[in-house]
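hey team, just a heads up i'm posting the complex here instead of the shared drive bc the drive is being weird again. everything in one block, sequence lines first with there labels, then the predicted structure for the whole assembly after. its two chains so it's a bit long, scroll down
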Amino acid sequence: MMKRETTGGNRRAAVAIWVAAVAIAFFFAGMVFCGTVEIPADAVARVLFGDVDDAVVLTIVRDVRIPMALTALVAGMALSVSGLLLQTTFNNPLAGPSILGISTGASLGVAVVMLGFGGWLGAGLGCYAGILAGAFAGAAVVMFLLLLFSMAVRGNSMLLIIGILIGYLASSAISLLNFFSTQQGVHSYVIWGMGNFGGLTWERLGVMGVSVAVCLAGASLFVKPLNALLLGRRYAGSMGVDVRRTRNWLLVISGALAAVVTAFCGPVGFLGLVMPHVARMSTGTSNHVWLFPATVLFGGAGALLCAWLSVVCGGGQIIPVNAITPIISVPVIIYVIVNRKKL
Amino acid sequence: MKHIKEMVRCLAAVALVAAVAVSAGCRGKSAETSGETAVKPEAVNLMTEAKLLRLYKGEGYYRAEVVNPWDTASMLGAYLLVERGVEPDSVPEGAFTRIDVPLERSLVYSSVHAGIIDEMGAAGAVAGVADGEYFKKSPYRERIAGGGIVNVGSSMSPSMEAVVALSPDAILLSPFENAGHGVIERAGVPVVECADYMEATPKGRAEWVRFFGLLYGRGAEADSIYSVVRDSYDGLSEKVAHSGERPLVLTEMLTDGYWFVPGGASYMARLIQDAGASYPWCNDGSAGSLQLDFSSVYAKAADADYWLIRTYGHDMSLDDLRSVYLLNSQFKAFKDGNVFVANTAEVPLFEEFPFHPEKLLMEYASIFHPEVTGENLRYFKRAKGY
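-- predicted structure starts here --
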């Protein structure tokens, strides 16, 4: 009986994973064929098959649309896995990179770069490296603080609260920087804060992709400890899992994933919180053997959907990604809260 | 008998028509002959180019109306400018904010307005400023540093205590859409809504100097400044209009995935076209900015001949531009080395062009048509590194 149930559960999870993969293909094609500039589908297809006859169309499809779709895909995967790791680690369905203060820490790092130097770094220049460094440094500081407190605080809930408080502190510092900054600096920071998947060229996308791939590979090694953590700290400990060490590694990986995305795409909200739940509901399991790949794929599909909507709903302009993600995510969050017993 | 009745009817009709015609003629003559006295002087709007400001001269006062830029059917402010210490014989009906002029202790939020006030010779009437760090030019910088001018803090949230202690006779500030002025409105000080920055034409914005002239008792100086601006602007735009070639011009750059370009009906689009160039979005009807992505910009402006970029604090080179976003190097202007950059932290572009658009027009004309004007750049530099 047990075996049959498991097989049925596996089948459902497998179907869900296939659905997510098809959704990725569908939305990816949508991103490539639909954009802010009207290009006939046959012209796009010619670019894809290497039969180029228009340099402008080639640049737009090959160097703008495809990198944007890939950026959304990679960012969605990274944020979702970050959220999954945090939700399991803290045994809290509302944990996510933005809740724990990691994204806010990255934002503070960028704010220091953009606003703390009279705004000239944020004007766009060498500054790109500065923004990346700022995001990583900000996220790293928050992660370091969380790890530091994790040595003093036993309970996961308390650590979660400390993460939230650190996030508030970072927000306060951002407000102060904004207040004392130049108008140009505030303008740059506000634009960055809108979040976007369209600012990366192939070169930078490669850096982001490799970084995320390394982190995802690292996270995949923790599938078994994650399953053990689902059963509680004591049970995990009895199974030979070094709970504190595992928790610290998971924090570092999830923090790195959030920092990479924030550095390259700005603070993209909600996806990290919601997509693990979509994966859970679709697969009907909490077994990370299935949940982990499902989260990766649903995260990618969700981000692609948001990116696609931001392009096609703007009437020739790009709607900020952060204006789209709550519309898709909030109903899911409310559903999760209302039906928490079922999770 | 029947014929007689018809004749009487006809005569009556003719008489009626004649009476109406004579009556109408008399009225017309009456209006023509007494036109100078019947039409009140107030009825003539003194502003000719500005669309958001109406200025009327009354007997012993000026009446100013600032149109709401975001709802042109309504007013943002209505003012009665009355000479200090003199009571006019009559004032028009309606709700007006009375301002005793010339101003003697004004609080000015914007360095742009302070600049033109100084040019009119009335800098001494500025007693306070907001965002004091933006006032980089003399005499304000020295007076702020020396305490002669009070800095009331951020223009978005000024210190109410500092404003009350200053007790200005008027506050000149720039309005924002659907935003009040907070506690400042309760200070009992006239607030002058300077919506000049929302004017869609260079000369329209520059003409606001005449209003400031009346506020500071420098009407003649202001009129003189404006007429020089207008004549220079018209003369130069006429000159380049006949230069034949109209290069395509791209502005600004991609920032974090978004590219803000001036709308086709905007101030900057107008200035570019008046400088003898073509603007890729000239058919767009928007007076504000368009928020575009790279694809949209590239599809329209890949072949742009010139690329104008404003930065803050950095003299951007072509290498910088390429490193910010690799595809920037795909534009024709980039390949031709025709990228011009204005570092607004170092050149007084934002401070000067609002009331001296002829200077920016000359700058643009120098870039687009050096054969007509010679190359004499004041704000922009050709980007290095190519």
